[in-house]
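Session log. Operator J.P. requested a structure for one protein chain; no other inputs attached. Running the standard single-chain path with token output.
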Amino acid sequence: MVKNILFMKQVITLFFQIYYHWNLLKGFITRDIKGRFAASFGGLVWTVLTPLATIISYFFVFSLVLRLTITPEETGTDKFVIFFLCGFFPWTLFAESLSKSVGILIGESALITKVVFPVELLPVSAVFTTFLINSIGFVIFLFYMAFNEYLNANWFFIPVALLIEMVFVLGLSFFLSAICVFIRDIGELLNIVIMLWFFGTPVIYPFSMVPEEFKFIYSLNPMFEFVNFFRDIILMDTVNIHALMVMSVCALISYCFGAWFFVRSKVAFGDVL
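Structure written below.
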């Protein structure tokens, strides 16, 4: 009972640390965004041009060169590139956030050892910054889809799903950034895991192509639920309540465990950074 109370106290304390130091967090986010484009001539313009170029490139390759099609009865569209991008953007938010946050404490070791501040704000800022920048491409794509008459009332759930995904990623980022302080190879290992995870998630292929004996394994993959949830909303005009519940539970478990592990670990950061 006492352990459970301490656990909840640590998780809640970390949440309120983020809330009470919101201005400092905004400062970190602003610094991160400016830092990414500080040496470039175009500056923040690249946050629009880069995803726009990505979308155009995929449309050119998949629609005009390869001319890939897909079964509309199953996916809601006969254009493979649209099916792909509906899963690609949620996946990119997930993968990029983890990649940026895993080594954030190592990269900011000088700041951590010299200045007293809530260290948990660093992985939070990495996730928030990545979501802000990469969501621009998603928004551009959604404008395209709305222009092509895919807009429906269920799009209301898109920001809800994005928020749930952010909480899910935030928990993983707390855990990975903390453990990377003690095991520096975690960053390299994560690259391999993300690559395997990508191919184990129906981003570039429909779930119907998965052999029957492997479908149960896919159901254990949280990103499978996230990717399909976005596709169902955008292409099929449906809200999968079961998937929404699974996503929410995964996000809650991820955040609670990640927050607990981070709080328990940060007392030793000063000894190894």
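Operator note: The chain has one domain: 2-272.
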